[in-house]
Specification:
The chain is globular, with a radius of gyration of 22 Å. A six-stranded parallel sheet has the order 3-4-2-1-5-6. The longest helix is centred in the first third of the chain and has 15 residues. The chain folds into two domains: 178 residues, Rossmann fold (3-Layer(aba) Sandwich), CATH 3.40.50; 195 residues, Phosphoglycerate kinase, N-terminal domain (Rossmann fold, 3-Layer(aba) Sandwich). Helix content is 33%, strand content 16%. Helix 12 links the parallel strand 14 and strand 15. The chain has 406 residues and is of the alpha/beta class. The protein contains 14 helices and 15 strands. Bound molecules: adenosine-5'-diphosphate, 3-phosphoglyceric acid and magnesium ion. The site of 3-phosphoglyceric acid has 8 residues, from loops.
Length: 406
Amino acid sequence: MTSNISIMQGVKSLKAIDVEGKKVLIRVDFNVPIDSHGNITDDRRIRAALPTINYCIDNNACSITLVSHFGDPKTPNDPKFSLKLIVKRLERLLHRRVEFIEDFEASKNEIAACSLERVFLLENIRYHAGEKKNDPELSKKLASICDVYVNDAFGASHRKHASTYGVAEFVETKVAGFLMMREIEAFAKALENPVRPIALVVGGAKISSKITLLKSVLGKVDKLIIGGAMSNTFLKAMGYDMQGSRYEADFVETALEVMQEARKNSVKIYLPVDVVVTDSIESPIDVKEVPAQDVLEGFKAVDIGPATVKLFSEAIGLSNTIIWNGPMGIYEIDKFSKGTFKIASAIAECYAYTIVGGGDTADAVDRAGEADNFSFISTGGGASLELLEGKVLPGFSLLDRADKED
Ligand code: ADP
Ligand code: 3PG
Ligand code: MG
């Protein structure tokens, strides 16, 4: 049977085509986090796109046009979301000049002028209303400025937008960049023929989007280890009073269903047995470790406790494939970061295949100083979740197949 992952593995790679003299359009995911001063706080996504960009430069593409979204502007041209912000960093990493194009339609001739080593970066593609609507008119316009379309935006490959999906319909040659291929190979290793037992460690705040994932992975994993705000919803479902903790009331029922399904599938679920609680997140005065069923009145659970770290670490230690998505607590605040960092180390120390997805989880792994000790850190959050759910990501679906003749 052809699995969804193998469908994605079967796309044609950039390596298989000749880009010499061609106008290449590369969809990258430069949606990087920035601080309140506009400084890039993590340039992993830019660095991850360099092999594809450099390959096109080294193989004498006529011009290279980079397209990305940046944030999610609600009004067109909101300067807060301008990709101008990343030009300097990109130039530094590429060791060459990058020409910023505010209006790609007006600059069509410029882009078409064949002159080796010119790299263009288009302004935030989400400034165009047609991008998120996958408007064929925008797709056609993008197609008109290139001979070859390369999708290397793994982080946005779950989006069916004009630049991640629709454009491929109007370009003759459309292939996957090296990051797309690396990501899919890494997940294939964890999902296709994994060395069992497989543990999925989930946490974080995006409960509603991740809880549906849990339902769909029950047939694939052996252990489900749940922490963070996500576990508060499960603890609530078990009848505990979670007081002021973050949880999602609308998904308590779903949490119950997940627990029942897990039992049917012989998947073992691990939930916190103790939690760190605080009277306030912003200005904590009273911070304590309490049993999970004893969250004090007016307090919030913000991290897993030491007994839970031990329980989770043991379950992790006995696994051979570990997939992690979502921090165990509010790791951005020192006082509430211990659980997440200890779990990062527990996973890093395992003799196992270890893979991390999710922007905040990757950041937490970095802060824990464990980034080099994981098998793979994905640049995708939502995209990696949808992969785990077993979907074929739209960013792969219209690309040429590896077995297609040129
Ligand atoms: P990722 O980006 O890795 O997919 P999420 O965005 O789902 O992860 O979740 C990360 C966020 O979850 C962090 O900002 C963290 O502070 C928050 N979080 C984790 N545990 C809790 C908790 N118990 N209460 C409130 N927020 C939490
Ligand atoms: C991400 O940051 O997860 C990707 O860049 C996709 O961004 P989006 O969730 O705004 O589509
Ligand atoms: Mg996040």
